[in-house]
Amino acid sequence: MTKSEFKTFIKGVPKAELHIHIEAVTSLAGVKKLYKNRFGKEMSKEEQVALFSYEDLNGFIQAFLKIQDMFVSEKDFNVVFKELEKYLIKNGIDYCEAFFAPTAFLKKGFSYKKMVQIFHKQIARIKEKDGITIKLLMDVSRTFGCDNAMKNYELLKQYPCEDIIGIGLGGAEAKGPAKEYAPVFERALAEGYKAVAHAGEDVGPESIWDSINFLHAQRIGHGVTAYQDPALIDELKKTKLPIEICITSNTFTKKVVKMARYHPVRKYYDTGLMVCINTDDPVFFKTTMLDELWICHKSLKFTMDEIKQLIKNSYTSSFMSDSEKKAALAAVDKAWKV
How far apart are CA 54 and CA 313, in angstroms? Predict the structure, then answer.
């Protein structure tokens, strides 16, 4: 099967994506629009190249913050959700759990209440128009510290939104040990929210252990250093704690994985870990869900039956209800005609 044939077929199969940041789905055209609104001029070629030039996780985070700085009002999130909508349709994704990071916008003076009102309006529009379900996870980023994370969570409680189902720990992993954020996560879980954490992306397996033991994370984002600790692999196999795999993202930052074919997802899958495939930040890493699944097939030698299982794993690992998961898995089986 050629790449084109593979992508055409896989697009027609229902899929879920669980690790994606909404600001990082914005296409270059969308970024240029935000830039013009912010600075009143066209974005130069040199500025475009500079924005997307980075060699490690911290460099990427700085680029991410630069895009956030281009927003001039809450209304700019209408652009973001239209870009997200196009991405989901293009990749045949009918269910998505996406991160949003409010801190940079709050520091610019944006109203959290107005932001989530736009989120809700856009998510409802996409559901009605395209039949796509979007749920959000608030990224209580390590970048700004635990006190700020708690302030963000307080806003989540003050202005409840049915589309926001939980919190996630992102940001510069090396600068913010997961255990420091335990108070926020313990409270969120006690009050009925879901909890996930980026861990083992830029730091060793101890970060994953801390996310399990202190944050009680219900999914692990990235988890590429788990293979360094056999006891952790045994724990992940036993508990079936889902790992949100982002192959191109991990390869791009080159902290742990240098080339896609060396990504530990193949070993994780064969060992019996619960893994699902995601893009993380499509525009930053020049990838899509279809591309990531092709990498699994072509570079990591996942058979088509295994690709099908990876797709099913995303639904199984999601925060959908059991009845929704059952229906989604049945839809995958119906669409799969290899």
Answer: 31
Q: What DSSP designation does 171 have?
A: S
State whether the Cα torsion 240-243-244-248 is positive or negative: negative
Nearest to 95 by CA among 313, 311, 315: 315
- 306 among known catalytic residues: no
pLDDT tens, residue by residue, 165-181: 999 999 888 888 999 99
CB hemisphere CA count around 21 (13 angstroms): 27
Cα 274 from chain centroid (whole Å): 16
CA distance 188 to 190: 5
Of 84, 91, 124, 82, which is closest to residue 9 (Cα–Cα)? 91
Annotated catalytic residue, options 83, 173, 201, 244: 201
Environment class of residue 128 by beta-carbon count within 10 Å: exposed (0-12), middle (13-18) or buried (19+)? exposed
How is residue 309 written in tokens?
Answer: 């299982």
> In which order are the strands placed within the sheet that holds 243-245?
15-17, 93-100, 133-139, 164-169, 194-199, 220-222, 243-245, 275-277
Range 308-333 burial, b when 16+ CB lie within 10 A, else e: bebbbbbbbbbbbeeeebeebeeebe
Residue 33 vs residue 276, higher pLDDT: 276
Residue 238 has pLDDT above 90, yes or no: yes
The radius of gyration of the chain from alpha carbons, rounded to an integer in Å, stands at 19
Task: DSSP for 284-320, please give it.
Answer: HHT--HHHHHHHHHHTS---HHHHHHHHHHHHHHSS-
In angstroms, rounded to a whole number, what is the distance separating the alpha carbons of residues 229 and 271?
14
Cα atoms in the 13 Å half-sphere on the side-chain side of 303: 4
Average pLDDT of the chain to the nearest whole number:
94
If you search the block for the tokens 């019996």, which residue do you land on? 272
- Residue carrying structure tokens 């963000």: 152
Question: Looking at this protein, which amino acid is placed at residue 31?
Answer: V
Report pLDDT digits (tens) over 26-61. 888 888 888 998 999 999 989 888 888 877 767 777
